[in-house]
Amino acid sequence: MVNLIVTCYTIAFIFLVVSCIRIYRKVPKDNREFMDPLSPGLKLIWPFVRIVAFYISENLSVDYLERISKKLQISGLSYIMTAEQYFAIRVLSTLFSLGLTIFCGLLLDNLETNYLIFAAFFGYFLPVLTLNDLRKKRQGQIVKSLPVYLDYLTMAIEAGLNMTGALSQAVDRGPAGPLRIELEKVIRDMRAGMSRAQSFRNMADRVQITEVNSLVSALAQAERTGASLGQTLRIQSDQRRVERFQRAEKKALEAPVKLVFPLVIFIFPVTFMILAFPIAMKFMYEL
Fold first, then answer.
1. DSSP codes joined into one string, 242-287
2. Between vectors from CA 246 to CA 244 and to CA 247, what angle results, nearest 5°?
3. Where do the structural domains in the chain lie, given as residue ranges?
4. How far, CA to CA in Å, does 134 sit from each of 73, 114, 225?
5. What 8-state DSSP symbol labels residue 174?
6. Structural fold of domain 140-244
7. Is 177 helix (H, G, I), strand (E, B) or coil?
8. Is 138 exposed, middle or buried (0-12, 13-18, 19+ CB in 10 A)?
9. DSSP calls for 52-96
10. Minimal CB count within 10 Å: which of 123, 128, 168, 275?
């Protein structure tokens, strides 16, 4: 009887492995020739991401995929994954969160439906929070390095170079980061025959930053009116520096307010306990 059960389990396991191999073989190969390399964490789960993305991509609406593609582009992940693969990561995150909750619940012998609902909700929206954090980080890096690139552009244009040459000099000498990548795309668009204004508008659409939108509008107005590009860029550079100083000053003024909560909750009680302990001990011994 035991041998029969073992044989059945072995056959079932073999059929499971064969089925998984057939399912994986039906998934088309992932062509990443023009894509950015995956992080070590994504490499571990990428085969599962491909499977889920392949089998659910037909059920996703076009509007949803377009919105996700736009968010991936703003976050700088459009050259790492597609919208279908991003949704697959959300599905896998939900399954992993549910599995971890079930495992912990069985170990603690306390598995409740509320925990499962919360785990599914958390796992499904965790990639969204991560994507928003990446978007804010990338936009912050662009805003931080924008005055430096504007200085390089101003010096190059005032030295007699055209916009394409000035952008090339700025990209070669500017700090590494997402803004350099975006300016390289602008250079490629301009060399491909796209107008300067349209190339910068495309960059503004990709990054969705107020400072970049202001720069693009100023360059377009200078091109229409025939104003000096060097003077326009210098004004933009000075304005970006003033705004950066104002943001730093605002954060410095907000710091005391943000410190009130940890002071009241963590530091003040411990301080009072340290000061009150000798007094309490002395009072107890005197009694």
1. HHHHHHHHHHHHHHHHHHHHHIIIIIHHHHHHHHHHHHHHHHHHH-
2. 65
3. 40-111, 140-244
4. 11, 30, 38
5. S
6. Receptor-associated Protein (1.20.81)
7. coil
8. buried
9. HHHHHGGGS-HHHHHHHHHHHHHHT-TTT--HHHHHHHHHHHHHH
10. 275
Of 176, 181, 153, whose CA–CA distance to 165 is shortest? 153
207 touches 74 (CB < 8 A): yes
Separation between Cα atoms, residue 58 and residue 232, nearest integer Å: 49
Residue 50, both tokens:
């491909």
Angle at 139 between CA 137 and CA 143, to 5 degrees: 115
**pTM for the predicted model, two decimal places:** 0.77
Q: What is the pLDDT of residues 7-51, one digit of tens each?
A: 776 777 676 667 666 766 666 777 767 677 888 888 888 888 888
